[in-house]
What we know:
The complex is a heterodimer.
Chain A: H1 2-14, H2 21-34, H3 39-50, H4 54-67, H5 77-89, H6 98-105, H7 108-121, H8 133-144, H9 146-158, H10 162-193, H11 197-208, H12 219-237, E1 241-249, H13 251-258, E2 270-275, E3 279-285, H14 291-307, E4 311-316, E5 320-322, H15 324-329, H16 332-343, H17 350-362, E6 375-380, H18 392-401, E7 404-409, H19 423-426, E8 432-435, H20 439-454
Parallel strand pairs in A: 3-4, 3-6, 6-7, 7-8
Antiparallel strand pairs in A: 1-2, 4-5
Chain B: H1 12-21, H2 28-40, E1 44-47, H3 54-65, E2 69-73, H4 80-83, E3 85-87, H5 89-99, H6 103-107, H7 113-124, E4 133-135, H8 137-143, E5 149-153, H9 160-172, E6 174-177, E7 181-184, E8 190-195, H10 203-207, E9 210-213, H11 219-229, H12 235-250, H13 259-271, H14 279-285, H15 293-301, H16 303-313
Parallel strand pairs in B: 1-8, 1-9, 2-5, 5-8
Antiparallel strand pairs in B: 3-4, 6-7
Helix pairs in contact in B: 1-2, 11-12, 11-13, 12-16
Amino acid sequence: MQAVLEDFLKAVRSHDITVSSAESIEAGHTFELIGFENREILKYALSATLAKNLEERESFSKCFDGFFSFESFKERTEHAEEEKQIAQELAEYQGDSELVKMMLAKDQVALSNKMKQAAREVGITDIWFFTQKGIYSQKIMKEMGSAQIGEEIAALSGGTCPTAAAQANQLRQVRKALQGEVQNFVEQQLAIYGANTNKRLREEFLTNARLSNVERRDFHRMHEIVRKMAKRLSDTYSKKRKQTQRGQLDFRKTMRKNVAYDGVPFETFWRTKNVDKPKIVAICDVSGSVSDYSRFLLLFLYSLKDVLSRIDSFAFSGSLVEVNTIFDDYAVEQAIEVALKEGGGSSTDYGQTFMDLKRDRLENANNLLNIDNKTSVIILGDARNNYGDPRTDILKLVFQRAKRVIWLNPEPVISWNTGDSEMDKYRPYCHLVSECSTIKQLNNMIDGLLKVSFG
Amino acid sequence: MKNMYDHRFQSVEEIQQEFEKGGYICSKEIATCLYIAFNLQKPMMVEGPAGVGKTEMAKTTAEILGVPLVRLQCYEGLDESKALYEWKYGKQLLYTQLLKEKLNDFMGDAETMEESMAVLHSKEDLFFSEDFLEPRPLFRALKEKAGCVLLIDEVDKSDHEFEAFLLEILSEFQVSIPEIGTLSTDIKPFVFLTSNNNREMSDALKRRCLHLNVPYPDPDLERRILNSRVPELRGNLQQNLVDFIHKIREMDLKKSPSISETIDWARVLVLLHAEELDKEFVQTTLNTVLKFEDDIEAVNEQLDGLLESVHSAA
């Protein structure tokens, strides 16, 4: 039972559920308490001990079903009777080795047990990649004693006796069937123990890959990664915080509370200050030159919407387009398509964009939306302005008014200021200019931004 | 001494039966979780939307075990002095005022500073004894001799600091009060923590708990719950009601109706002697089920279709 539990925990871990040693012990107690009799109850019980949220519960359920359901050596039972007859007709050859006896007797349970035992001996639980399937199948076959079958076949087919030859043939067939079973079994084990290795590798790759190299077909996966990151950021920062101003007594509150104690200030209250969530204006370039990136940048902005309730998103190429409502109204993939369509299409014009920004967010009649000293402005773009007027004067205005201006350029630093890139002209009016070409860099950037805002 | 763990649940089925007797219909999953939580004496974290009976579960458990229920409602800003204990400053102050007169008798023959200090030292603990202690829920839970059910409600509303403090209590079931000493209990309380998933709890806290997610019940379970809670409502009408609620839950609403709303609505039906679920009746009483104006409007728009499908299903 111990062994089964160990294997099971290994399988659970490979399904992206962290199981600490304390939890393993807990799972052991649960096993003892519940036993194997009722699978449904065991599943609920272990799920309660091991899975800690909804996502984990789902993967746990999958893992549990996979682990406790291998049904090897069963499909063939329909033909078993038939085969038994043939076997009986073919003289009563019982075989020498234990394995051959089992195979000929069609003792499914014993064979299945022997296979599992062999699998344990060769350490099947360490299987990770599909490329290992062949080697593990071979190892298991060997462990089960395939060599002996070979010997027996050789011995039988050596002579000229026709019965012996037929028996050898039969043995070959049975061996083939056994091989099939073992391969099948290994496949199942791979599904259980290697379930997420590939996914994990892929995710790691995508997190660090340059956004321009990420292919469209990975979009779905990318969304998953970005969502996870945004979720983590949200968990860390979503709570409204209060900061105590040390040394400043909230005199009124203290007096009010201490009236009961004859005005003696037993309980003191200090002035607090609500730390606001950061107000962010994000402007994302969606023109042709950065189209590879913009899809993902928009994806990130979309995911951030949940973290920062006050993110104000824009897309632009020729002119500025507000995308807040698009993000609110559509599901993610659609929203990005619509934003790309609305914002993109024309050639990049930073000058016009900044003029629009001035109109919408510097001289807006609705004061609340205007950029003020609490706003952080993030510009995502390559600063390639098609040799137009960069209108740095407006960026300067923004720079003077906003808390921070951050420019994230998806191009590598080396190609800044080449051709029509105006990075150097904009640089003086940004608090921070940084290259940002992978999702990881983007995440670190936003993390830093939030940290500063709360710190 | 009576111990609540003397009450042994032999099997998951037994829990289901006992809870049903107590008026709480639980699914196999809930019963299993209760079974291991009780037998392993582990805290149980119950998650799920509001109104699916998380709090009720704790209440029923306390009833069945015959122990008191100690409830701690969490909120932002909850701290140790509200959750564990507090000194009764007022009483202390009052007593010192009253005893001022006696002070001379006390000090009596103490001449020097040292002597008076020594006299004071010997009396000091009087003011920091349990007589002057205001026990709060966690303290009370630890003091229950026969054990108790401790319900820490809406733990996700509390602050991070309080969560850290809970960790200590939940693993050791003891607290140290500097002036008195360590208070511990031999019989661990049966702890329920409920959460609406307002925020993700820390891993450390999660690790110490068993996890149970209580979703909206399936129609069958919901009917059984109605049978137990509103037995006057029977047959077709009950069926229609449950079907209707399930249809609403499929819609995209701000707050889907949960079991408590279903029960409320069933009671309204009984109270108004409704014969069937007709349009007019639904329109006038929909506010018992839905709590947002937008939701009510959304359902009203589709009311004809909803009712039709409900009646044709029956």
